[in-house]
Amino acid sequence: MFVQLDDSSVLYRQVYDSVRRAILEGRLPARERLPSTRSLAMELGVSRRTVLLAYDQLLAEGYIVGKVGSGTFVAPELPDSPFLGPSSDKRAATRSAPPRLSRYNRRLVSNPPVPPPGWTLDREPLRYDFSYGQPAVDWFPQDVWRRLIVRSLRTPSLGLLGFTPPEGFAPLREAIAKYLRHARGVDCTPDEVLIVGGSQQALDLAARVLLDPGDRVALEEPHYQGARQIFLAAGAKLIGLPVDAEGLVVSEVAVRARGARLMYITPSHQFPTGATLPLPRRLTLLEWAERADAYLLEDDYDSEFRYSGRPVAAIRGLDRAGRVIYIGTFSKVLFPALRVGYLVLPPVLVRPFIAAKFLADRHTPTLEQQVLADFIKEGHFERHVRRSRTRAAARRAALLLALRDHLGDRVSVSGADAGLHTLVWFRDVPNTRIPGLVQRAAAAGVGVYSVAPYYLKPPRRGGLLLGYASLNERAIRQGICILASVL
C-alpha cells in the first residue's frame, strides 16, 4: 500500500504526501490509474472528504489528472520531473554526504561563531547572570520610544514605507554626525556616515570591501572574537599584537604588523581588558597607518560609559590622512534588538561601502531609523546616556566592593573605569580550571564567562569576564558571594 497514516500531521496532508512521494519515486508510474476516492477512503478507514482534499491538491499541482467516466490517473508529465531524485536508498546516502560548500563557508564552519553570553537557549535562565553582552534594557525609556513610533506611523510617508537609500535615513546620519562632533571629537559630515545593521555588519562590510584571501590583519591580543571570526571567514591571516595596562603596545606594531592591510582596535575601552589607549599611542598608530598604507578599524562599542577621568577623543577625531574607519553602535546604550549601528568612513571609501551595503540588505529598516533620529534630535538620547551612566556606576561600585569582600587578594580587576564589564584575573587559579569553575557556578545559578575564547593563544592564568549592567546591586552582591563559595 502506497499510503501510510499515523498521528504526525493532518490526515489529508498525509494522503497527499504519500501519493506525491509514490509518484515522484516511480512507484506510481505515469498514466497509472489511482483508486477512487471512495475505495481509498474505505481502505484507509478515513472519511471520503479526507481523500477528496488530497486528490484536489494533487490535481491543482499537476501530479494527477481526472478523466470523466474513466477515473483518476497519474499525470503523463510531472511538474517535478526535471528534479526527480534517486531512489530512497540513494537519497539516504546523499543526505549523509557532506554538502559542497564555498571556500568562504568552509572557513566559516572551521571557526564557528560563539554565541554571546545569555544566548544559550537549552537551559533555564540563570538567577545571577554576569553576562557582559547584555545592557540594562530596563533603563530604556520605552514610553518615549513608543510615543515616537506612534507619531511616525500616524503620518507615514512614501519614503518611510518604500525603499530608502542604502547609506541610511538622512536625518539620522545628520543627528549622528552632530552627536559625534561634541561627544567623541569626531568631525565628520553626514555624507561620511553609513547606517548599518549593528557593529557586526559594519565589521563584515569592512572585510568584504578591504580584504582578499591571504591579506594580513592585525588585531589586539586579546580581542573581540566576533571580529576575529569575520576576518578568518574572509581568508585573512591574523597577527596578534600584545596589550598591556594601557592598551595596544604600539612599539610592537612596526615589526609584527608589517604588510597588514587592516588593524582592528578598541582604543577607548579595549575588549576585553578594558584598558584605555593614551594619546601618544593613538598618534603612533595614525603614523603607522599612513606610512603602511593601511586602515585602522576603530570599534568604539561602549564609549558612553566612563566613570573616571576625562574621555579621550576617538582616533577618528585625530585622523587627518583618511586612515580611520570608525564603528559605533546603539546596541549597548539603547537595546540590542534595535540592530542599528553606523560607520564613519574616509571620503574615498564611502562609495565602495555603500555598494557593499546595497548588495547585503539594500538598507536598514527605515521606521527604526526615523524614530532613532527623533530620539537623538529631541535630546532623549543624551538624557538616557546620562541616567544610564549614573546607574551603571552604582552597579560597578557594587561589583568591585563584592569582589573585594568575598575574593579579596585572590583576584585582580582590570578595565573597571569604563564600559559595562570588568575582567577578573585569579592569582591562584590556572586557565585549565576555569571551565570547571564556570560549570559549577552555573549549577549554583551564577553565570560567569571565561576570557580564554578571546585569545588566539589562551593565557596561563584564569580570568573571568563579568558584566554588571543587567543585574541590580543586590543581585550582584549575592552572585559574587555564591561564586566565592563555589571557588
Structure characterization notes:
The structure is a single chain. The chain has 487 residues and is α/β, with parallel strands linked by helices. The protein has 3 domains: 11-88, Winged helix-like DNA-binding domain superfamily/Winged helix DNA-binding domain (Arc Repressor Mutant, subunit A); 122-135 and 384-486, Aspartate Aminotransferase, domain 1 (Alpha-Beta Complex); 141-379, Type I PLP-dependent aspartate aminotransferase-like (Major domain) (Aspartate Aminotransferase, domain 2, 3-Layer(aba) Sandwich), CATH 3.40.640.10. The protein is 42% helix and 16% strand. The protein contains 18 helices and 16 strands. The protein has helices at 11-24, 37-44, 48-61, 88-96, 103-110, 142-154, 158-161, 170-183, 198-210, 225-233, 253-256, 279-292, 315-318, 350-361, 366-377, 380-406, 434-443, 473-486; strands at residues 64-67, 71-74, 128-129, 193-196, 216-221, 237-244, 247-248, 260-265, 295-299, 324-329, 341-344, 411-414, 421-430, 446-447, 449-450, 461-467. The strands form 4 sheets. The protein has an 8-stranded mixed beta sheet with strand order 4-11-10-9-8-5-6-7, with helices on both faces. A 4-stranded antiparallel beta sheet has the order 12-13-16-15, with helices on one face. Strands 1-2 form a two-stranded antiparallel ribbon. The longest helix is centred in the C-terminal third of the chain and has 27 residues, at 380-406. It is globular.
